[in-house]
Amino acid sequence: MGYLDTANLAIAEMREFAEFEPAEQRYIRRSLDVGLARADAFERWARNDQETASIRRQYLAYQELNALRGAAPNSRNDIRLDSYIGRLVRVSMFDLGEGCLFGFPAYRFLYERLLGPDARPWLPATFCAAAALPQIAPERRKKLLHSISEAAACAPGWSRRRPGFFPDYLPADEEIGLGED
Predict the structure, then answer these.
(1) Measured between alpha carbons, how far is 6 from 162 in angstroms, rounded to an integer?
(2) 96-115 pLDDT, tens per residue?
(3) What SS3 state is found at 100?
(4) Is residue 80 a contact partner of residue 73, using CB atoms and an 8 Å limit?
(5) Which of 17, 19, 85, 127 is deepest in the core (most CB within 10 A)?
(6) How far apart are CA 136 and CA 173, in angstroms?
């Protein structure tokens, strides 16, 4: 893949990110800080005691990410399937339960960056499983489950390309109101 192809893909990812709600954008950037150990999320993202507690729970939930990275099953008969899906549903339940990801596109965008392209085939199933859990309020569950397109749920194959755009903290967010949920 040439430089222009890579640049075009990164621009497409930036456009996709720009389409998310401001609260989703903020949550994705915060989650990448926590999940990729990019920065002190407490210092950068906590605006009050509630957010501090949420970030603390996120650090605990995201401890599973190290075991998930590079461990995606190779097939439906892979002996790692149960462990992988169980862990991924558990982490996904945390993120969906926080109420800041409003649908599959934002979820997929985040998890492709947290886990890499090997996780792509497993994301529709884990999203649906986590969104259908009783911990999610029925109305929210309905909205989440309706957010996954047939194309995403029934894709015949997935790209092996690594994401090229990893959104980061912008200090100006708070000044222009993007930091508000």
Answers:
(1) 10
(2) 999 999 999 999 999 999 99
(3) coil
(4) yes
(5) 127
(6) 29
